[in-house]
Amino acid sequence: MTPEVAALAAELTAMGAADRASAPLANSEDPAERLAWRRSTARHADRLAELLDEHGWPVAAEVGAEAAQAAWLIAQHADRQLDVQRRALRLMEQAVAEGAAGARELAFLRDRVLVNEGREQVYGTQIAGVRDGAPVPWPCEDPARMDERRAGVGIPPFGEYVAQFA
Fold first, then answer.
1. Measuring CA to CA, which residue among 97, 87, 79 is closest to residue 34?
2. In the prediction, which pLDDT does 1 show?
3. Closest residue by Cα to residue 120 from 155, 156, 92, 146
4. H helix runs in 58-134, sequence order
5. Other CB atoms closer than 10 Å to residue 73's CB: what's the count?
6. Most buried of 10, 18, 74, 81 (most Cβ within 10 A)?
7. Contact (CB, 8 A) for 96 and 106
8. CB count in 10 Å sphere of residue 79
């Protein structure tokens, strides 16, 4: 790994760690904490956009699995910067087509972008809320085949997925 790629990997890993550490603020009852979360995700998305300009999609074979996962997480949480999410999605689609990134993560990002565009998701990965104590996904195209599509990209059936939120 060149020093430049090592620096990229370290930066992505640090941003991913900061994202995971601040994620509980996203649903805080304290408006100041929610604002801190939004500012953090916006700052990370801005930086990810710059890194995508400079390096393209950071794949695990180049930056390591942890840094590649961090890039995906930052894109996933860039909800207020749909342009960054769409760009990450396009680059990640290309990486998956080349066998350099995972279809599972791509499915989550695709659903996130679709939901943020006000469209039906494909894999049922995005949860709209809780009804009668059970997580409910945002609307999903052809819900009867959702688990089949999930299996095709390595995501457990919806019932197993939501059980982890209980």
1. 79
2. 82
3. 146
4. 60-63, 65-76, 82-97, 103-116
5. 23
6. 74
7. yes
8. 17
